[in-house]
Design goal:
Blueprint (H helix, E strand, L loop, with lengths): L4 E4 L8 H7 L4 E4 L17 E4 L7 H4 L7 E4 L9 H6 L3 E4 L5 H16 L2 H9 L20 E5 L3 H12 L3 E5 L7 H5 L2 E2 L3 H7 L2 E4 L13 H5 L5 E5 L8 H9 L3 E6 L12 H6 L5 H5 E3 L8 H19 L10
Parallel strand pairs: 1-2, 1-3, 3-4, 4-5, 6-7, 6-9, 7-8, 9-10, 10-11, 11-12
Helix pairs in contact: 1-13, 4-6
Length: about 325
């Protein structure tokens, strides 16, 4: 009888040290290094379990070819790159790894916030290009962080970690999340907003920590960004689709947003002719100094990378041994 097959679809390449240590006694493991769903054709159909990262999507056209798959584990938090509903129709569990990078993403959100609100990025960029005088006045006015309001949109694991870090800096922390139970605010020592608009109108910085769903797609857009305080800041370390990045660009151009930090974009890597990217790369454009863009790297640390591989492999092992999977999202 053939051994079960676990397929690592993308992102992780040999040596598969963690995967072999956890699964090697019961399964064969292969890494496909796919960069598109088409790269999976003829290579994934016999998988008993799939470990999916974030370079590619697994849609109905792939799922319908799977012959014996029991689990697709998204080795990360977001799971909008797998057709969960059709997988359920086929009896395939879809799970995620919700806790591997909570600290790293929260740290990155706070890091972007500090870099923006303390003028670090702006002054570095301006002085590096010999623009303006060599003096702090270039970035006036900057306000003391203590006592300002930090708004968290989505207070799950990462949103909670970010809120607690913001509290340590002396922010008044508010959050909007219609899905968390009453008392979350009291447990964390933060204040709940009943509507997104209520949060936006009072926050000096807004940090987004929602999954990408039909409800949260472009939850920050031209209309909602216009509800933010003039001169405020926006940080997105969640999913690219949660924030309309072109609306961010327009708000910076209009001087409504003073700055923004975007770790994620809807298309990664973005095309060079994207208006946001063109503006961000143009030293004469305000986006160059006032928008920070990172390549979907907030999750990363060596320990976090190990965690996603280890936790994903452990979930595959549970299923292959006939045990129920953890963190099922469908």
């Amino acid at each position: 009888m053939a051994r079960p097959l676990v397929v690592v679809s993308d992102f992780i390449n040999p040596p598969l040290t963690h995967e072999e240590r956890i699964l090697g006694d019961i399964a064969d493991i292969v890494a496909l290094n796919a960069f598109s769903e088409e790269d999976l054709v003829g290579r994934i159909e016999e998988a008993d379990a799939i470990m999916l990262y974030h370079f590619i999507s697994i849609t109905r056209k792939t799922i319908e070819r799977l012959k014996k798959c029991k689990l697709i584990v998204r080795c990360g938090v977001g799971y909008d790159n797998v057709d969960r509903a059709y997988a359920r129709e086929r009896g395939i569990n879809v799970a995620n790894v919700p806790d591997y990078g909570s600290e790293e993403v929260a740290d990155s959100a706070i890091g972007m916030m500090l870099t923006l609100m303390r003028g670090v990025h702006y002054l570095n960029s301006r002085c590096q290009h010999d623009q303006g005088p060599w003096i702090y006045e270039q970035v006036r006015p900057i306000q003391r962080l203590r006592g300002l309001t930090f708004g968290v949109v989505g207070i799950g694991r990462i949103g909670t970690a970010t809120a607690l870090r913001a509290k340590a800096f002396g922010f008044q922390v508010v959050f909007y999340d219609p899905y968390v139970v009453d008392g979350t605010d009291k447990a964390l020592g933060v204040r709940r907003c009943e509507t997104l608009e209520e949060l936006l109108r009072q926050s000096d910085v807004v940090s987004v920590h929602t999954p990408r769903t039909a409800e949260t797609q472009h939850i920050l857009n031209d209309k909602t960004i216009a509800q933010m305080k003039p001169g405020s800041y926006l940080v997105n370390t969640a999913r690219g689709g949660c924030v309309d990045a072109h609306a961010v660009l327009r708000a910076v151009e209009a001087n409504h947003l003073r700055g923004a930090g975007l770790d994620v974009l809807e298309i990664e890597p973005p095309p060079a002719d994207d208006p946001l990217i063109r503006a961000w790369r143009d030293p004469s454009h305000p986006a160059h100094d006032r928008i920070i863009i990172n390549p979907h790297s907030a999750f990363y640390s060596e320990q976090g990378l190990d965690d996603m591989r280890i936790k994903g492999s452990e979930n595959c092992r549970r299923v292959l041994l006939g045990q129920p999977p953890r963190n099922v999202v469908n």
